[in-house]
Amino acid sequence: MARNIFNQPAKDTTQTAAQPPAPAKSSKLPGSVGGLRDSLREITANSIRDIDVDQIELDGLRDRLVLEDSSIDELADSIRKHGQQVPIMVRPSDQPERYRIVYGRRRLAAIRKVGGTVKAIVRTLDDDASLIAQGQENNLRLDPSFIEKSIFIKEMQEAGYKPGVIQDALGLTRQGVSNHRVVLEHLPDELIRLIGPAHGVGRRQWGDLAVLAQKTSLVDIAKETLTSVKNDLPSPERFQAVFNAASTKARGAAKRKTQNQSSVVKDESGAPLAMLASDGRAVAIKITRKDNPEFGQWVEDNAEAVLRQIFDQWRNKRGPGH
Q1: Fewest CB atoms within 10 Å of the CB: 114, 199, 201, 294?
Q2: Are 72 and 78 in contact (CB under 8 A)?
């Protein structure tokens, strides 16, 4: 099972300007005093603080395709009316009085629009724990779409995170991680940016689109298709429009591929006997009288009987009931 970062015991935090210094350790403390000291440290480590947004760095890997969108404006309006109801999480930066965001990027973006400080939980986390917290909090609050998870997985792998950490961050099995990454490998980055996160579009649909990527130029099709639709068309509908256009294009390309095919039929010595041609609508056998005048005449005289014989052979091979 995936580790739950939110249920882990709080770790002791490093000193920052916004945090009062810890009292000096005495050589021996009674049990009740020592327990009180540990409790105070835990409360301090998890306390909610008001931090200036300019002190927070946008750290970590990309887990959303769209950040600055209409939903940020809606969230900003809600915070303006009702205040920030849910804190973000940050961790101390290497620079004094600076923090690196763990999760809550949308809330931070909204508060930058509203102005003022942001309520934040400050935790001292290493890179692995920070990544797991980021992934688990996103899954709890606003589940990323399939393609967003795929991109997050790709960036985690390229950043060198271990498989177990990646699985814990998104609550996926090893096979689940592989399923996301395999689909993404066949989809151009530009195509994904044109479509967007497409919430509700799952692995099977993205997988079908990835198959089409091997048959036609999806980026060109997406650009052509999306220029004729509304700019505010929801991302799932953008996906469907591109998929439909790509499917039609691929079927047309497959049909054209079967057209105008031809091959030369030769005898045992390698000399040409006839030309076999097909265009998707008909099959034709062409014998050049110049090369084989006597054979051409014989075929002309016996074509009806030969064709019936060939037809009977075909029907017999199909068997009864066909």
Answers
A1: 294
A2: no
Low-confidence ranges of the chain (pLDDT < 50): 1-30, 40, 43-44, 67-68
At 46, list the tokens.
């998890």
pLDDT at 85: 84
Cα-Cα-Cα-Cα dihedral of 237, 238, 244, 245, to 10°?
150
Per-residue HEC secondary structure of 245-306 comes to HHHHHHHHHHHHHHCCEEEEEECCCCCEEEEEEECCCCEEEECCCCCCHHHHHHHHHHHHHH
Q: What is the pTM of this model?
A: 0.50
Q: Which two tokens stand for residue 128?
A: 């692995």
Burial of 264 (0-12, 13-18, 19+ CB in 10 A): exposed
Helices of type H across the chain: 31-46, 70-82, 105-114, 127-141, 146-158, 163-170, 174-184, 189-195, 203-213, 218-226, 235-258, 293-318
pLDDT of residue 37: 54
Q: What are phi and psi of 99, to 5 degrees?
A: -135, 155
Tokens for 41? 């440290």
At residue 15, the pLDDT reads 37
Domains and CATH numbers, the chain: 1-11+29-143 (3.90.1530.10), 261-314 (no CATH)
Pairing of strands 88-92, 99-103: antiparallel
Identify the pLDDT of residue 117. Answer: 93
